Amino acid sequence: MEELSWSEDYKLTWSDFKGKPIAGNDAVAVTASGITFSYSIQRENKIIKGFKTIVKAFFYPEHSWCKLDKVDTHVLGHEQLHFDITELHARLFRQRISKIQPHSTLPQTLQTLHATIDAELAAMQNKYDIESEYSINYEGQKKWKDSIAKRLLVLSKFKSK
Fold first, then answer.
1. Torsions phi, psi of 153, nearest 5?
2. From the CB of residue 92, how many other CB atoms can be counted at a distance below 10 Å?
3. What count of other Cβ atoms lies within 10 Å of the Cβ of residue 14?
4. What is the pLDDT, as a whole number, of residue 1?
5. What is the pLDDT of residues 18-57, one digit of tens each?
6. Per residue of the chain (161 residues), what is the pLDDT tens digit?
7. 3-state SS track over the chain
8. Is residue 55 within 8 Å of residue 36, measured between CB atoms?
9. Residue 73's beta-bridge partner residues?
10. Where are the domains of the chain?
């Protein structure tokens, strides 16, 4: 499956949306994005001594779609912000991981944290769509854009590389 990693230097274009629009869906565009997570644990005599993690924010072109005759740059900005919200949560995830010390139930801690971040991400994506009225409310969308930009800046030391 094709995936695009989030990058400060790359903004989505309509050509990135390669999926087929869902018949009967009122949306003019849908962004499929998410966070992937993996980890490895270093043990000595069954005692957890350390760990490494990989957290990435991805956009999935084949699962993202648009109705080209009904979209414009404003709608593209709305979809980009969905991807930026995914990156924000990847940064929050990395920040929270950075505070964890090795301990006996580390795998469960990491899995619980991943589930929590995924739930927070889904809730924020939904709230963004509601408050921006799926891009129809220009002022609502601008407030979100400004807020997410500030939050990404605050967490810049945890950005995707």
1. -65, -45
2. 20
3. 14
4. 76
5. 999 988 889 999 999 999 999 999 999 999 999 999 999 9
6. 799 999 999 999 999 999 999 888 899 999 999 999 999 999 999 999 999 999 999 999 999 999 999 999 999 999 999 999 999 999 999 999 999 999 999 999 999 999 999 999 999 999 999 999 999 999 999 999 999 999 999 999 999 98
7. CCCEECCCCCCCCHHHCCCCCCCCCCCCEECCEEEEEEEEEEEECCEEEEEEEEEEEEECHHHCEECHHHCCHHHHHHHHHHHHHHHHHHHHHHHHHHCCCCCCCHHHHHHHHHHHHHHHHHHHHHHHHHHCHHHCCHHHHHHHHHHHHHHHHHCHHHCCC
8. yes
9. none
10. 4-155
C-beta of residue 39 within 8 angstroms of C-beta of residue 52: yes
Instruction: Tokens 């629009």: give the residue.
Output: 21
Q: Which residue has the tokens 């390669």?
A: 18
Q: Is 133 left (phi over 0), alpha (psi -120 to 50) or beta?
A: left
Alpha-carbon distance of 112 to 118, in angstroms, equals: 10
d(CA 65, CA 17): 5
